[in-house]
Amino acid sequence: MSSVDELKFQGKSASPVSIILDQATSTEAKVQVVRTIWYHAKTLFLFTKSDFKTVIFPQSVFALVMVLSKAGSILAPGKGLQEIVMRIPYMLFWLWLHLLVENIANQRMEEGILEDKENKPWRPIPAGRITPAESESLLRTTVPLAVGTSLLFGSFVPSVALMTFIWMYNDLNGSSTGPILRNIITTAGLSCFGWGAVATLLSGDITPGGERLLRSWMLIMALMMITTVQAQDFPDTAGDIARGRKTIPLLYGFNFARRSLAALAIVWSIVCPAFWDVVPLAWLAPVGIGGAMAGLTLLRWDQSSNERVWQLWCLWQTTIYLLPLFSRASA
Predict the structure, then answer these.
(1) pLDDT by residue (tens digit) across 285-313?
(2) What is the dihedral angle through the alpha carbons of 59, 142, 151, 195, rounded to the nearest 10 degrees?
(3) How far apart are CA 246 and CA 115, in angstroms?
């Protein structure tokens, strides 16, 4: 029975204040009911929504190509195709769970909230779906869940390494100390995603020769990303200014940032196929997409083109991840 009903039952009239309080209590109860499991599931999805194309898809491709190409016979010669395919859901869950940790850690920060209000107001915190304090509580749950899951999946070391880089990037302000350190931490984190995905697919059973091959290819990928990942800075310029973040375009000028990106995109489009000694046709995708990205970077500076450059960078990275499939040495 509500407070208003009690007053009526007792023969007393309800005051306007009591009616308002009763309505407020009722509204609050309704809001709690609305926040169902689907509401929370959507909130978790929105934390990670914008990074499916930059993390989960390309790192899944990286891991699957490494394991299912002839390079996989070096990484883990005893693993059968059926066993690997059965572990793909584990890999996807591992990637998403660690991406969730990374996104919550970043988006809960005051600077991250300010940036998201400018660039991505639909994210859970600026949209009012969850508070920063609730996000921190969620983070305290997801971190041990991610690390504990990795212990079962055979990807414990990449998980702990990734958590370290997430901590450095967000809580130690690595994202704002300077573009060089920021790019190094960002690249190290992305490399850990790929490393963890491979380890999860193989249950952590990688041969010494496979470890050397994986390290060599990941080092090339890391250098490629460190020297070209400024492509993500162009569409985020407004948010970076609002946050006071030091990026290569803002520190060294847009001319230098664009010209260096264009030149290095061409360089890596040649170096990466050469590393795997791919068949001639396999050169077309990385060289073609890298060239298109370089041209667009130099010729078009509007926001729409900046976003397209970042999309091309993600596609270019994915085509480079496919190169082991076309290696003449593993044919």
Answers:
(1) 999 999 999 998 888 777 777 888 888 98
(2) 20
(3) 13
